[in-house]
Target: NAD(P)/FAD-dependent oxidoreductase
Amino acid sequence: MKKFDVVVMGAGAAGLFCAGVAGQLGLSVLVLDHSEKVAEKIRISGGGRCNFTNVDTAPANFLSDNPRFCRSALSRYSPRDFVALLQKYQVPFHEKHKGQLFCDRSAEDIINTLLAECELGKVTRWQPCSVKNIRFLASSAHGVSADSYEIDSDRGIIQSSAIVIATGGLSIPKIGATDFGYRVAKQFDIPMVETRPALVPLTFDADAWAPFAQLSGLSLPVHIATGSKKERVVFHEDLLFTHRGLSGPGVLQISSYWKPGTPLQLNLAPLVDVAATLSQAKASSRKRIANELASLVPSRLAETWVAQGAALGHNWERPIMEASDKALTALAERLSRWELLPTGTEGYKKAEVTAGGVDTKALSSQTMESRQPGLYFIGEVVDVTGWLGGYNFQWAWASGFACAHGL
Ligand code: FDA
Model:
């Protein structure tokens, strides 16, 4: 039987970081992963360049049943701290926009940094290694000197006084995502917040979407909103039309807040006053409405937009001079207040993250220890979900750091 102070399950962002810090604090640490390669999500993140943090990180950038939970960890390990770590290894990076920091070279720089930190902490790494069973040995019942855990792994039985679950969420199963962390929570009666795909493209009824499918590949800046007046959420980001629906940063952001059965509101021309511009053009222009509209939005969108008129009782496929004020107002309204009802999402196969997860009610916000003594949860497996833009990795680092210092 092998003995460690801590066994970290999951060698992804949170697990590797936590293991490195804990090792450097003097604990004997094993980090194991069922995949052959560590940190596959870091490798594919940010288009291969890993958006590893966001300099503007604040609790408001996270969703959770308990929005206050993430505060303590985020304040104790900030984006500046992670940047300092990268500077120690001379990893070059740059800010793309909106505070998002990316590697100049590749996401491998982040993985190598985490592995080097593990090395410094003399962390033992086993992968691939799967866990079949976890047993809690309470000192009172088992005659051992302190509470501990026995873990049946395919490399034999391991004993440790603490277990850190860092096995992530359900998104992208083809690169190793599993429900392992949620099953462990269930085994120890730790409550869960229902999971759902987040930062995910949205889909629409095929017939309703048919007129817009031809816009696939088109990207433009929009305002996108969802929710009732009281809890309205708005993002100002790019939108991407796809064959099946909508994607792009704006849609991924709103998807985390979107509730099935509720509509989205979109302004496809947020930087211009479409009604005023069309009304002005009507006075002097001989062009078709679509051609005038094409000076405000991409021409493919303009053509698709005027073609919808017939179904809505308007003739928008005509010279702008001949259009009534009412028709032009209706056209402008549809463009700037387009309401549409998604039927679903592309699911965990395409989601960047999983919202929901281990209920923070059962965790200490200082250490991430659960109400089951010696059992900790960090990273995406916890019901803390960041916006798009480097926030999810910052949560992985911050929760891993808090945990390592609490072990
Ligand atoms: P993570 O998923 O990183 O690690 C979990 C580990 O546990 C994996 O190595 C897995 O193999 C292992 N595991 C799972 N089940 C197991 C089992 N049963 N036994 C043993 N091991 C098991 N975020 C961000 O901030 N910036 C970005 O640029 C991106 N980009 C991005 C792109 C894409 C395509 C995706 C899918 C996601 C992102 N993200 C992101 C999100 C980010 O990748 C994610 O939030 C973090 O990786 C979560 O870190 P964790 O360590 O919690 O889980």
Notes: The first strand starts at residue 2 and ends at 9. The chain has a mean pLDDT of 96.
